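Q: How do we represent a protein-ligand complex in a form that can be generated token by token?
A: Start from the inputs.
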Amino acid sequence: MNDCIFCKIASGSIPSRKVADTEDMYAFEDTNPQAPVHILIIPKRHIDSTLSLKKEDAELIGRITILANEIAVSKGLDRTGFRLLTNTGRNAGQSVFHLHYHLLGGRTMEWPPG
Ligand code: AMP
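Then emit the structure tokens for the protein with adenosine monophosphate bound:
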């Protein structure tokens, strides 16, 4: 999508602080971190949100979760725990409509979330 900020980050036309880069996934640091570690993991292909996922995307979503684990381990978060989440739609607080998973760690998380 031409006007999607995360498409532009994935293609490199908008700069980001890269954490991981694969053929179809990209991970980068959130510019407004909510925890000592706050990384966003996205598919390079534009997908609005979880609501736009199709059955054939199941393998991609599985690999995003595996990549999140690998990043978490590289940051030492496997020892303390971390949160992996995606916001879908207005009530959840989704502000960028390109599917992204937040990897948050480095502090104790609260539940329920705000
Ligand atoms: P959400 O509210 O779940 O849609 O999350 C969007 C996230 O994207 C927020 O945590 C923002 O801080 C983050 N964000 C927005 N623009 C950028 C950017 N250019 N680089 C990195 N993170 C961004």
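The CA atoms of residues 3 and 97 lie 11 Å apart. The radius of gyration is 14 Å.
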